[in-house]
Design brief:
The chain is rod-shaped. The chain is built from four helices and five strands, in the order H-E-H-E-E-H-E-E-H. Helices cover about 40% and strands about 15% of the residues. It is of the alpha+beta class. A hairpin with a 2-residue loop joins strand 2 and strand 3. Bound molecules: iron/sulfur cluster (2 copies). One iron/sulfur cluster binds next to helix 2.
């Protein structure tokens, strides 16, 4: 029959028009994301122990870790995440023993410039503060050790004096 297809189409259109909406007005409205969604990475400088496990776990060489040694302690000086090669597989997060690398639910990762896709998480200020903290702790430890050594020497001298006095009095 002529117009049968048209009526069929109109039926679907009208049904959809009055039916339950299955779209949302993005970006004003957003659908809830699953808990295990992997979006933009996040790095927590104070938790990182510079163990390199995330770097070794990554199949795409996305992460570059920079380290330095201060007072025999490893300091993270850089954590570069080349996001354009990331598979969002989560292997780095899984490998990290300190939860220092995690993933947010931010999926808007596009940029206008390819050179800005990579993220350098570590700021020079954080490195400077960490080095200061380590040096301060080392200085305090050295001072405490020196004070303990001096106290020990003083105690030994006092014991010697007392022994000599006892022997002299006997
Ligand atoms: S999510 Fe996967 S590909 Fe991306 S940095 Fe981590 S291990 Fe590498
Ligand atoms: S695995 Fe975790 S703690 Fe180790 S270097 Fe990577 S982010 Fe830091």
């Amino acid at each position: 029959m002529f117009g049968k297809g048209l009526l069929k189409g109109l039926k679907i259109t009208i049904g959809r028009f009055f039916g339950k909406k299955s779209t949302v007005q993005y970006p004003e409205k957003r659908l809830p994301l699953p808990d295990r969604f992997y979006g933009k990475p996040d790095f927590h400088y104070d938790k990182c122990i510079a163990c390199n496990l995330c770097v070794n776990a990554c199949p795409n060489k996305v992460i570059t870790l920079g380290t330095d040694t201060v007072e025999k302690k490893k300091v993270v000086t850089g954590y570069h995440f080349d996001q354009q090669y990331c598979l969002f597989c989560g292997l780095c997060e899984e490998a990290c023993p300190k939860d220092a690398i995690t993933f947010t639910d931010d999926f808007e990762l596009t940029t206008y410039d390819r050179n800005t896709i990579g993220i350098e998480f570590v700021k020079q200020e954080q490195v400077d503060n960490k080095i200061k903290e380590i040096k301060q702790a080392a200085a305090e430890k050295a001072a405490a050790e020196k004070a303990a050594a001096e106290t020990k020497v003083q105690t030994e001298n006092t014991d010697k004096e007392q022994t000599t006095n006892k022997e002299g009095g006997a």
